[in-house]
Amino acid sequence: MDGMHDLGGRQGFGAIRYTPNARAFHEAWEVRVNSLYAFAVRLGIFNMDEYRHAIERMEPRHYLTASYYERSLTSLATLLVEKGILTREELERRAQGLFPLAAPSAPGRTNSPARERFQPGDRVRVRDDYVPGHVRMPGYIRGKTGVVVSESPDYPFPDARAHAVESQDEPTYDVRFRSDELWPHSADAALVHVGVFQSYLERVA
Amino acid sequence: MDGMHDLGGRQGFGAIRYTPNARAFHEAWEVRVNSLYAFAVRLGIFNMDEYRHAIERMEPRHYLTASYYERSLTSLATLLVEKGILTREELERRAQGLFPLAAPSAPGRTNSPARERFQPGDRVRVRDDYVPGHVRMPGYIRGKTGVVVSESPDYPFPDARAHAVESQDEPTYDVRFRSDELWPHSADAALVHVGVFQSYLERVA
Amino acid sequence: MPDHTPVIKRTAPVERRVDAIQQALDERGLKATEAVEELRELAEEQWIPQNGARVVARAWVDPAFRERLLANGRAAVAELGLSMPKHHRHLVVLENRPTVQNVICCTQCSCTAFTIIGLPPDWYKDLEYRARVVRESRTVLKEMGLDLAPQVEIRVWDTTADTRYMVLPVQPPETIGWPEEKLAGIVTRDGMIGVAPL
Amino acid sequence: MPDHTPVIKRTAPVERRVDAIQQALDERGLKATEAVEELRELAEEQWIPQNGARVVARAWVDPAFRERLLANGRAAVAELGLSMPKHHRHLVVLENRPTVQNVICCTQCSCTAFTIIGLPPDWYKDLEYRARVVRESRTVLKEMGLDLAPQVEIRVWDTTADTRYMVLPVQPPETIGWPEEKLAGIVTRDGMIGVAPL
C-alpha cells in the first residue's frame, strides 16, 4: 500500500536527533513490547510480514506521531485481536481507556507469474505495481531502472505471507540505483542499494 | 517539494467524516484566522503561492495533526516573521507559549525553457520533475500521460511566485487522466482532471 | 549573570496564537481588528452557497444563460452580481448528466470557488477526502451516501491551479416548472461540490 | 433499559496498554511474563554492539576471516559463536574504503542485523532518518557529524528484505598492531551503521 510508512525521499522532515551511541530503550515498557511481539512470533501467532503490515495499517496520524515501540504495540494488539486471541473490548477494559488498533487489511497477492532470473550486471526496471496490501517495494523505486549486483537466498514472498496467501519463496536482487535516477537533479549523489523481490522486477532490453 | 501535503492517492486513511451541508467554521478564532491571512494578502505582505507553500513547509507531524485553520495560522505567522513584520519572540511572548512555525524554504525556479503550446486532444506527459520548492504538480501525475482538454488564461507561475523568483505568466492545461493510468489496477474507474501548468508538460509523440 | 527569563515549553493554545498576531498587527497601526470584522462579514454572510444556488437555478430555467455559464463561468456569474477574487481567473462549470457525475476536490490544499459555492466544510479540507477521492472516487461517494449506478461515469476535478470549479447538478424532474427562487432553495453546496444528490 | 457502562473516551497510557496485553496473555496460560523476562535478557544483554565489534576486530587482524566474512557473513559470524534469527537468511558485510562510505537504513520500518550490531537507537527509527538518508545522504551524514571528503562515494543500503547489512569500517591507521580485544573496544554500533567515524 502507498501508506504513511513509505517515507524514503519524502521531504519536509527536520534534523536527525542524533546523539552518538544512543540507547535502544529508554523505558521498561519498551523492552516489554519488544519482547511480547517477539514472543508472539515465536509462538507462531503471527509472522514478521503480518507484524510489519499491521504497523503500516495504522491510522496515518497515529503512525506519524507514535513512537517506534508504540507502533510495535499497536501492531501486536491488532494482530492478537485479528487472530482471535484477545478482543478489543477486553484490552480496553483492562487498559481502562481506548486502545487504538490498525485498520483492516486489503487483500494480498501471490508471486508474479512472469518472474525472471537475473545475473549481476543485468539492467532491471521496477514494475509499475500499485499493491493494495503489504509490499516491500519502497515507492521511490517504482518504475525506476537499476543494475543487479547480486542475488540473495530465497525468501518467503511478503506480499503473500502478510495475508496468508499461498506463494513460493523467491530471491531478492540487490539492485543498485543512482540517486539521480531516483530523484533527478534533486538528491545528493549516492548509490542506493535496495533488496528487490524478483516479482517486482522486469528486464530492461 | 515531495511534502506531507501531497496527499492525492495516499492510502491508509479512514472514512470521510461527512455530514450534509456542514458548517465552514466552528469557532470564532477560525473566522479570525481566515480574515487575517486574507488581510495580509490584501496588504501585499505575501501572495497566495507563498501562503500555500508556507503551509507545505510545516513540520510533517504538525501538518498532519493540525486542523485546517491551525495550518492557515501557522503559514500566516511564518510569513509575517519571514517578511520581517513580526518576530517569533514577540509572538511567543504575546501568546505566552511556543508558537510553532514552518521550516525555511528551499529555492524556487522559473518557467521551463521548453514550454510548448498544446491543443485540445494533444497527448501530453507530465515531466519527471523533482522540485525542492513550491510546485503545483501533485505527485500522483508525475511521469503520467493524459489528454489536453482545454487551455486556461495565463496565471502567475507558482514555482517562482512562492519564492519571489522572476517568471512569466503561463497557462494551465486541463489534462484528463484515466485513473487506471495513474494507479494501474488500483483505483476506482474515473477520469481525473488536473490543471497542469505548461512548464510541467511535454508532448507525447 | 544567570538568565531569569522563564522557560517557555508548551505550545500556546491556538486561540492565544491568533490573538498574538492580531494584537501585534493592531499595535503596528495596521488595523487588523477592523479588517477582521469586515472580512468576517464577507466570509460568513457574503460567500455563501446561496450564490451558487442562484446560478444553478438560473441555468435550469434559462437555456441561453446556461450556455453562457458553460462557455465563461466568471462572466456569467457576474450577470447575477456575483464576483470572484482577482486571482480566480477562470470559473469552469461542470455539467452533470444522468450518466456523468462531476466531483471537485483539492488534493494539495483545499481550494474552492468559495465566493460562489461558499467556504468549504471540514470534510472537504480533511486529509481523508483529499487523499482518497481521486483514487477511490466511487467508494468514497458511496460512503458519503451517493451510490451511483455502475453506468455513471465519474469525473474528478483536482483544483491544482487558480481555475475554480462548480458542479451544475441535473435538475430533479419533479421540479420542472418551479419558479427560479424556489429552485434555488433546493441547491446545496454539497451538490455543487458533486458529492450529494439534490 | 439504559446502558450503565461508563463511556471510555481517552486513549489509555501506553504502559497500561502493554500491561493489558501481558496480563491477558498470562491469564490464558501463555506465560508471557516469563517470556518477557527471557527476551529482555536477550535484547538488553545478548544483542549488543560488542558482538559486531568482535567481528570487525577479527576481520581487521585476520585476512582469511575477512574474506570469509565478505563472502558469507552469516557463516563467518557463526565462527565467533554469533547467531542470527532464522528469517535473517543473509548477512551482507559492506566494506568501507578510504573512498567508499557505506550507510545502512530501513526506510519502510527499522530493520537491522540486531543480534550482531545491537538493537537500533531512536534516531535510526525516527521518521527523519528514514525519509532523508536515501535522498540527502551527504547532507544527513554531515549533520550527524560525518563530513565526508567530496571524493568519497556514498552507498546507501535500504533494508527492504530479510537480508541484513553491517558496515565493516576502515581500521584507523593508528591502531595497526593492536591486539584484537583492544581493537573491538573502539568499534561502535554507529560505525557499523555507517554514520560515524571510529
Description:
The complex is a heterotetramer, with two copies of chain A (205 residues) and two copies of chain C (198 residues). With 205 residues, chain A is α+β, with helices and mostly antiparallel strands. Chain A has helices spanning 28-42, 48-56, 60-65, 68-82, 88-95, 158-161, 179-182; strands at residues 123-126, 145-155, 170-178, 191-197, 201-203. Chain A contains seven helices and five strands. In chain A, helix 1 packs parallel to helix 4 (68-82). Chain A is globular and about 60 Å long. A two-stranded parallel sheet of chain C has the order 1-4. Chain C has eleven helices and four strands, in the order αααααββααααββαα. Chains A and D meet through helix 1, helix 2, helix 4, helix 5 and strand 2 of A and helix 1, helix 2, helix 7, helix 8 and helix 9 of D. Strand 4 (191-197) of chain B pairs parallel with strand 3 (153-158) of chain C, so a sheet runs across the interface.
Quickly list its features.
heterotetramer, A: 205 residues, alpha+beta, five-stranded antiparallel sheet, C: 198 residues, alpha/beta, two-stranded parallel sheet, 11 helices
Brief summary of the model shown:
Chain A is α+β, with helices and mostly antiparallel strands. Chain A has helices spanning 28-42, 48-56, 60-65, 68-82, 88-95, 158-161, 179-182, and strands at residues 123-126, 145-155, 170-178, 191-197, 201-203. Chain A has a five-stranded antiparallel sheet.
